[in-house]
Write a structure and sequence with these properties.
The protein is mainly alpha-helical and about 500 residues long. Helix content is about 50%, strand content about 0%. The radius of gyration is 49 Å and the shape is elongated. The termini are far apart.
Length: about 500
């Protein structure tokens, strides 16, 4: 007996489609394609509509996930403002392109910049006219990365440790076994350094959990130093100067200041002003004779010539005049600087008093006892130059000293061309001591003081006696009826010791 109500006439029904076997222990769930999709519950049973409905309604209902896959998402069309379009066009203009930034990098940076403003809704409020171009942004990022890579390793390690673990461990955390068991050491973590790294590359404060960006940059620098890494990026360098500067200063007098930066045209005097300055300095030197002031002004004059790269006959005259004034005042430091520049100017073919200063150069090396440089200076002389009077005189002085002929040396001392006497005055004292030591060996027991005066080129007997007294030889002078006697037999060791001290090596600042 069935309690089911018979259907109406003319209506055909379809029974509900129950599966023959229902496993109720689990429910089938479709796999999600990503974490962004929400979970959609699936119906456990299928439902069949009556047979008299349409065909489309009798098909099984598709899940929302299938509908999302079947219907492609419609891309939203976004209209860029004119300022953004102008910014993009300006980025690719030929005048704004940078050879160090490729087109692909520019396009990527443009997309990143525009997408950022689009996502944050600031595209219409951004000042695109003053926005830096993508190539400028890329170069700034490179410069920042380069500056970060130059940071000391100790500083980077400290910064990285603070960023990873801002809380410092206190002494109470290590007070018992319970506290230590709950704290995992940095080197026990999965990201810690291996045993080989900890043995071969120990850090200052212990191994770090992971390599930071600064550590990677430090390793790149090490590989670059070893030749295993070559960076393709080169920091932009300032353009080289196109030529020497031209001075604009109109002052005739200017103090000498050592340059600590590039010279400015407003602080440098042009050549025609320097001509007037030289005439003024020569007049003041003849009138006042203030060497400190003259030397300072000449150094400033030489500096203005150097920064403007002026190398002509006027430059030669400036250095020659300054060298003569320095010789007159015994300033060998300034003389050597001028002599060195004059040598280079003469080799460049500029006209000047080269014979005079080559003779000074020989006498200078005799004074400093620099035999190697003296031989080089003589080797540079031509046959014609050796016949010139100043150079011939200097070579005779060198020959007399090499042979120990003090008589000829002092004869040459009394007849020195140009200003060579100022140089010979610097070493005539030691040659007098050497000659006096030899005289004491050859003439015993005594000798007239007048002979010492004439032989060693003293101006008077009083000057010769004062020279002997200066070396504690006052007991060696005795008065006779018609002359003053010098006891040479007792003076041997006294002047031998004085000669040894006088012939110590001469070392001067600014020596050639």
């Amino acid at each position: 007996m069935s309690w089911a109500v018979p259907p109406a006439p003319g209506v055909q029904t379809v029974p509900y489609g129950y599966p023959p076997t229902i496993n109720t222990a689990y429910t089938a769930v479709p796999v999600r394609q990503g974490f962004s999709q929400a979970y959609q519950a699936q119906p456990q049973y299928t439902y069949s509509s009556p047979a008299n409905t349409s065909q489309s309604s009798t098909q099984p209902m598709a899940s929302p996930a299938d509908q999302q896959q079947q219907q492609p998402p419609q891309q939203q069309k976004f209209d860029w403002p004119d300022s953004v379009r102008s910014y993009v066009q300006r980025s690719f203009q030929t005048s704004n392109l940078d050879p160090s930034v490729t087109r692909a990098e520019m396009e990527a940076k443009l997309k990143e910049t525009i997408r950022f403003t689009q996502d944050h809704g600031t595209m219409y409020t951004t000042d695109w006219d003053n926005m830096p171009l993508p190539q400028t942004i890329i170069k700034n990022e490179r410069q920042q990365a380069l500056m970060q890579s130059m940071a000391p390793p100790a500083m980077t390690a400290a910064v990285n440790t603070t960023a990873i673990n801002p809380k410092k461990r206190k002494s109470s955390d290590l007070s018992g076994p319970e506290a230590t068991s709950s704290v995992t050491a940095p080197w026990r973590t999965a990201k810690g350094l291996s045993l080989e790294d900890r043995v071969t590359k120990p850090s200052m404060d212990g191994p770090l959990p992971a390599k930071s960006k600064f550590q990677k940059n430090a390793e790149k620098r090490q590989r670059r130093g070893d030749g295993g890494y070559q960076s393709s990026y080169r920091s932009p360098s300032p353009p080289p100067p196109t030529g020497p500067i031209v001075g604009l200063n109109q002052s005739l007098e200017k103090r000498y200041l050592r340059l600590t930066a590039a010279p400015k045209p407003a602080d440098v005097r042009p050549e025609y002003i320097l001509h007037q300055t030289l005439d003024l300095l020569k007049k003041k030197w003849r009138k006042d004779g203030n060497y400190n002031y003259i030397c300072d002004q000449f150094k400033s004059l030489r500096q203005d010539l150097t920064v403007q790269r002026i190398r002509n006959e006027f430059t030669v005259s400036v250095y020659e005049i300054h060298a003569r004034i320095a010789l007159e005042k015994g300033d060998l430091g300034e003389y050597n600087q001028c002599q060195t520049q004059l040598r280079a100017l003469y080799k460049a073919g500029l006209k000047g008093n080269s014979i005079e200063f080559k003779a000074y150069r020989i006498l200078y090396f005799i004074h400093t006892a620099n035999r190697t440089a003296l031989n080089d200076a003589i080797a540079d002389l031509t046959t014609a130059e050796k016949e010139e009077r100043p150079i011939k005189h200097a070579l005779n002085v060198r020959s007399a000293l090499a042979l120990g002929n003090y008589h000829k040396f002092f004869q040459l001392y009394l007849d020195v061309p140009n200003m060579g006497a100022y140089l010979m005055d610097m070493f005539v004292k030691r040659e007098r001591l050497a000659a006096l030591a030899n005289i004491c060996k050859a003439f015993k027991p005594e000798l007239k003081l007048r002979y010492i005066t004439e032989e060693l080129a003293f101006e008077s007997d009083a000057e010769a006696a004062q020279f002997i007294i200066d070396y504690n030889g006052q007991d060696l002078l005795q008065e006779r009826q018609d002359h003053i006697a010098f006891l040479t037999g007792k003076a041997g060791m006294l002047f031998e010791t004085a000669r040894a001290q006088a012939f110590r090596r001469v070392d001067l600042k600014g020596q050639i």
